[in-house]
Design goal:
Number of strands: 12
CATH superfamily of the largest domain: Vaccinia Virus protein VP39
Helix content: 25-40%
Radius of gyration: 19 Å
CATH architecture of the largest domain: 3-Layer(aba) Sandwich
Structural class: alpha/beta
CATH class of the largest domain: Alpha Beta
Number of domains: 2
Number of helices: 10
Length: 300
């Protein structure tokens, strides 16, 4: 895709990172550890930005309204956050993969006083986001620039109400974050009633997605999958959110929210989800591979 100019409007500098007055802001383009990062201004929302890495959309942030989630998969993860506990109750969340910290901002806005740990390996990206899209100073968000699995190992047993995995190197999930050993480490960190939610990306024949369901099911007894019906039918490449817990999930309410989204999604669980896996077996560290690369047409 075409690259934006490597500059910002003067007014963007004058009003502080992410601020805009008068004329429209220009894009910010900067090399980070994971490639070329672009922050593109949203022409429809005054202080909103989209983050891309090497042309692949990663996050969308509205500094005026951090509870606004633009991307489909982020809204689905937002539903999981909303259903985690009674509305407004503070929660403890681990985010594996930070991007522009969209979901950490959402949690802080909708559940004040929540305590959050973000693990984002790309230190240069973290610096860019902090500078250009500053966090609310009152948000209790700690960011660690280490590998996701290394950072997860430092989380105390049973600390988290929720662990969100949204880790992509380029546009692929690294192999060591797709195994049963990794998921077992996730389960160690969540409370008995805690939830694990993973953003997965796959396309036909959906071998990676089916394998990830089998892998998570080998560790967590309760699962649900939220995705666009065309993705589940293997008609196109796209995202699916896999939700897991040691306790029953709020399937009815998750289904209602997913169906009422601007881009409706379907929720599979129970026997239907088991049938969907088609006999896939759990992935271990010994055989794990990165998720498939999306076709070039996905980001055009």
């Amino acid at each position: 895709m075409a690259r934006a100019r490597n500059q910002r409007a003067d007014e963007g500098r004058d009003t502080g990172r992410g601020g805009r007055r008068g004329q429209a802001a220009e894009a910010v383009v900067e090399a980070v550890d994971g490639g070329l990062a672009e922050l593109l201004p949203d022409r429809d929302r005054a202080r909103a930005w989209t983050l891309l890495i090497d042309g692949a959309p990663q996050s969308h942030v509205d500094l005026d309204d951090p509870a606004y989630l633009s991307f489909e998969y982020q809204r689905r993860l937002g539903h999981v956050i909303d259903l985690l506990a009674p509305p407004g109750k503070p929660v403890q969340v681990v985010h594996l993969g930070g991007g522009a910290l969209s979901l950490a901002r959402y949690t802080a806005a909708t559940r004040p006083r929540s305590t959050q740990q973000v693990v984002e390996r790309d230190a240069a990206l973290v610096q860019l986001v902090r500078r250009e899209l500053p966090l609310d100073p009152n948000a209790r968000i700690r960011v660690r620039s280490v590998d996701a699995r290394e950072g997860l190992a430092k989380v105390p047993d049973g600390w988290a109400d929720l662990v969100i995995a949204d880790v992509f190197s380029g546009a692929r999930t690294p192999a060591h974050l797709t195994s049963a050993e990794f998921v077992a480490e996730v389960r160690r960190t969540v409370k008995d009633s805690g939830v694990y939610a993973a953003n997965l990306a796959d396309g036909p024949p959906l071998a990676h997605l089916r394998g990830q369901i089998a892998t998570v099911a080998s560790v967590f007894p309760e699962l649900a999958l939220v995705a666009d019906p065309t993705v589940l039918r293997g008609k196109r490449f796209g995202n699916a959110v896999l939700v897991a817990s040691g306790r029953p999930l709020p399937i009815a309410e998750l289904t209602r929210r997913a169906a009422s989204d601007p881009h409706p999604a379907r929720v599979e669980h129970g026997r239907g989800l088991l049938d969907f896996t088609g006999g896939a077996v759990p992935v271990t560290d010994a055989v794990a591979v990165a998720s498939p690369a999306p076709p070039p047409s996905v980001f055009r």
